[in-house]
Amino acid sequence: MAYLPLEIIENILLRLPVKSLLYCKCVCKAWYAMISHPQFAKAHLQLPQTQAKTRLCIIHFEEEKHDASLVVRVSTKDWESIGDGNGNGGLLDFDYSLSDANLKQYIHLLNSCDGLLCLVDTLGKIVLWNPSTRQYNSLPPNANAPKYIWYGFGYDSSADDYKIVGVSRLRRETVVDVFSLKSYKWRRIEKKHHTEVICSWRNTVLHGAMHWIAYDPNVPYPTVVAFDFEKEEFRQMTTPRDESSYILTVIGGCLCTPSGRDSNKMWVMKEYGVEASWTRMDSPYLNENFKCQPLNNQLKLWVNEEPLVVLFDVLDNRHRYINYTADLYVESLVRPYPSQNE
Predict the structure, then answer these.
(1) How confident is the model at residue 216 (pLDDT cuts 50, 70, 90)?
(2) How far apart are CA 280 and CA 28, in angstroms?
(3) In a domain, 49, yes or no
(4) Rounded-to-integer distance, Cα 6 and Cα 3, Å
(5) CA angle (122, 110, 143) in 5-degree steps
């Protein structure tokens, strides 16, 4: 019987979805080692078919049980099964719980990166979770964290490292603490930033940087402050001067902010970092309370700061409200652990 070289087997396996790959790990030790290797996860993540499989993760917090029920994969065919049309979400079928992660109080879903979701509860407990592989990691607490702090999550491509960024105001300065998944430690960034960052639990990540709306005492209108995950430093950009909005989102790879004058308009930075490229465009159903993300070719997802999601079908002009916190992610094999635990 002829055997295929491992290189050909790997090329075949890379084209399988995550669920199938998890089954394939049980075939033999060689396949287990191959699929479990971080380089395989990277190669699988970079394939176009992987990036195209966008899923919707919904968090429902049950106050009586004090745990988090997470889960839901959505496609254009079954999107109507999410919620019953009255905002009650009665048809949701949760198939996984994060109660073992010991998350307390209300759970905030910060954002997703390479298939990893970053969750933070109101007590400051942080969990990285991969809903595709069902792996999660409760991160060590930040001993230097102030009482009031905002978090962000992203990837440093130069160091091949996932980072949690904590931002707070301390003695009129914006203070930043960074947790590196690779070193598994918190450390304070010495570079100070004097603008007052207006943080929300939902930050905007684009081009390797985390973005917020900020207030600079020397500028009479809001500005955009970005924290670069690689350089670990701030940079600042202006917003349209006659339009005051404190919401940022990313649509089509561009920074966007709702118009402060017209709820059916938004400003789009067509060329990143070029302040003159802000362009006013139509944006039906988008206002200051929501951030918009594409779910697929037909659906748009709006998420606001409250536990409310709006799914909008642009082809049929239909929408559905869901009283849950949600965000998008891609299916991946990326592990929420430091490299030494591989």
Answers:
(1) confident
(2) 56
(3) yes
(4) 9
(5) 50
* Residue 269 included in any domain: yes
Q: Where in the sequence is the domain holding 166, given as residue range(s)?
A: 37-341
Which amino acid, one-letter code, is at 23? Y
For 207, other C-beta atoms within 10 Å of its C-beta total 13
CB 208 within 8 A of CB 230: yes
pLDDT in tens, 298-332: 566 656 555 566 666 666 666 666 666 677 788 89
Residue 10 lies in a domain: no
Q: What's the CATH number where 117 sits? A: 2.120.10.80
Domain membership of residue 27 (yes or no) is no
pTM, entire model: 0.80
pLDDT tens for 94-123 read 344 556 666 666 677 788 899 998 988 777
SS3 for 316?
coil
Q: Give the pLDDT of residue 159.
A: 93
Cβ atoms of 257 and 250 within 8 Å: the answer is no
Backbone angles phi, psi at 213, to 5 degrees: -85, 140
> Cα-Cα-Cα-Cα dihedral of 19, 46, 159, 234, to 10°?
-110
Distance CA 98, CA 233 (A): 34
Count of the separate structural domains present in the chain: 1
Give the tens place of pLDDT for each residue, 35-89.
999 999 999 999 887 666 777 676 655 554 544 444 444 443 445 555 544 444 4
SS3 category, 130: strand
28/195 Cα distance (integer angstroms): 56
In angstroms, rounded to a whole number, what is the distance separating the alpha carbons of residues 242 and 89? 39
